[in-house]
Amino acid sequence: MKNSVNKRFSSTFNLIKDINTNKNNFRNENFDKNTAKKIHDQAKVEELIQDAIYFYWHGGEIKKAEDEFYKGITLRGKLEIVEAKFKRAIDFAPCRLDLRFDEASTEVLQGKTKEALNTYKEILRLDPENFNASILYAVYSRLGGNSKAYTQTINCLKQLYPEKIVKFIDAISMTDRILHKKIKITAKKYKRKKHAIVVLGYTLLNSNSKISSVLKGRLNQALKLYKLNSDSVIVLSGGMPVDGLTESYVMKDWLLKHNVPKEHNLNNMPNLA
Question: With a threshold of 0.70, does the pTM exceed it?
């Protein structure tokens, strides 16, 4: 998303640069109100996109955003602000499908699957044969229990994109097999020495950067493994900050409080893949 935003921002910058270079030409009747509005709207869209990216990565000041931009609306977290930024950008550029995809992604991240489905439907209204919107609508419909919508959409894609859809159907089938596979989670002692226990991060709760039940489960499992393999190094991942604290920092603090020595507790890889 970042690269595409930089390209859009660059094009807007060049447009404004051309206008400043040719001011005299734009003073005649060719520079009408519609042209001026188009330039203003395009610049406003890029500004909102940059704001959205900032709030996504840094959180921003929610209270300040409430007071200055969203008066009368209580914002619960940074993703809600990101969503609102994209919605405002869409008001200025309703035909920009990339903005609608960004809006849907933000809704999904907040667990607003129903709203995301509506956004994908709106994209398909504007572009009925859009492959990405169709496959995402199908998958999230299925996750929401709407098998009929999934089947209808997949059948439609089979007709429109018979070759392209095959690998997606295979990926969905593989995901089903993985989700239904029973995973062994019993901690055990390993014979080999000097190995690492990798703990993947999980979104922190907004309230005082608290650890969610999912993340606590991962940390408890890592702790069990460590107690059986005390020569291990624990590698923590997760660089999404909440209230200024990243997942890996909060995870490290949790492990230190549970008597894991500092030298065995690494959090210098916040975005480990």
Answer: no
